[in-house]
Specification:
Porin, alpha+beta, 355 residues
Length: 355
């Protein structure tokens, strides 16, 4: 109950603050939290997110302790469409395990997950709400439409190696599914929520949620607070994470974080540093018309254009040009008629004065 109470207080603080800043086209990274954002990295964009961490784990019942270091790496790539992203998540750890008189040095992959994410709904696809130049209040009041989240889905497959970190008789391959929502409450506050089911059909099956609240301090610095709840037959827990990020440039970001759980079976403490890097030279912003993505002219349409057969886009341009020319001709016709009418009027006035 305390966990839910603290989470509720954090969310209330988020909703009660409305501070305006600017959106930027900087790197879109999931670090340093455990949640995944709803938006993909973009078509033909490669992004690498990685870090090093320290891990301390102890168990008050099983009476063991483990201390060590690890590295995590996520590779993300925008494939085929702006909304689609494929990713590979890896986590490798080295630690020293002690249980009574038993000691062991452990090492191996703790996570290997290959998956894909697709953005189903984007509330900002038609663009940001335009400022009202006549009303200060209209520009600063809360926009209730911001409560509508972006929604995406993720499906993946886990590969579990037979090493010191695996559960006995755990399946080598198991599915993973995540429902992702992302709220932009204003230009600084963002809430990301993940509802996940992991290692489905495996002995290590678990499900839960991750809620991440991010606050943009300024154009360079951001802070985050996160709560992760896990429920499973083998392991259940609640984990809190807090961290900061620093944007070196639009394609490079540094981060630091610390995580602590609420149990002593086991008691977990993690601290880490990370970096996210993006390569977007091959990315081209899609053309948006009436909130929909406009596809580029295909080779077939270009070929038809050369043969004198106009594409739909060319027909629209031709129709628009013809309409402009029509209005121009009508305007010129009116201007030509006006001098004639004025001359006729002057003649009539002279005749009236002569009479």
């Amino acid at each position: 109950m305390k966990q839910i109470k603290y989470l509720f207080i954090a969310l209330c603080l988020v909703v009660s603050n409305q501070i305006i800043a600017q959106y930027t086209d900087e790197i879109n990274t999931n670090r340093p939290g455990n949640s995944a954002g709803a938006f993909s990295v973009g078509k033909n964009v490669l992004q690498i997110e990685g870090g090093l961490y320290y891990a301390n784990e102890s168990h008050s019942v099983l009476n063991y302790e483990a201390n060590g270091f690890g590295a995590d790496l996520t590779t993300r790539y925008g494939l085929l469409k702006e909304q689609l992203e494929v990713s590979l998540d890896l986590q490798y750890q080295i630690d020293h395990y002690t249980a009574g008189i038993f000691n062991k040095n452990r090492k191996g992959l703790r996570q290997t997950t290959l998956g894909a994410k697709y953005l189903f709904y984007d509330p900002f696809k038609k663009g940001e709400k335009k400022p009202n130049i006549y009303s200060w209040r209209a520009n600063h009041k809360f926009d209730w439409k911001r409560l509508i989240p972006a929604i995406s889905g993720y499906v993946g497959v886990n590969y579990t190696m037979n090493n010191d970190y695996a559960i006995p008789d755990e399946l080598a391959f198991s599915p993973k599914a995540v429902l992702i929502t992302q709220h932009h409450l204003d230009r600084r506050w963002v809430i990301v929520t993940n509802f996940f089911a992991d290692k489905i059909i495996s002995k290590a099956f678990n499900y839960g949620y991750v809620i991440t609240v991010t606050y943009g301090i300024n154009e360079k610095w951001s802070a985050m607070l996160e709560n992760k709840g896990i429920k499973g037959n083998y392991y259940s827990d609640g984990i809190f994470t807090t961290g900061i990020t620093y944007l070196l440039n639009k394609n490079l970001q540094l981060d630091a974080s610390i995580s602590k759980n609420i149990k002593s079976t086991p008691d977990l403490l993690y601290g880490g540093l990370g970096v996210s890097w993006r390569f977007d030279k091959k990315h081209q912003d899609p053309k948006i018309k009436n909130g929909k993505e406009v596809k580029e002219v295909k080779k077939e349409e270009k070929r038809k254009s050369k043969k004198g057969i106009l594409s739909e886009e060319e027909l629209d341009k031709a129709a628009e040009k013809a309409e402009k020319q029509k209005r121009k001709n009508e305007k010129n016709k009116i201007e030509e008629v006006k001098p004639v009418e004025e001359k006729k009027k002057r003649v009539d006035d002279l005749e009236d004065s002569g009479n």
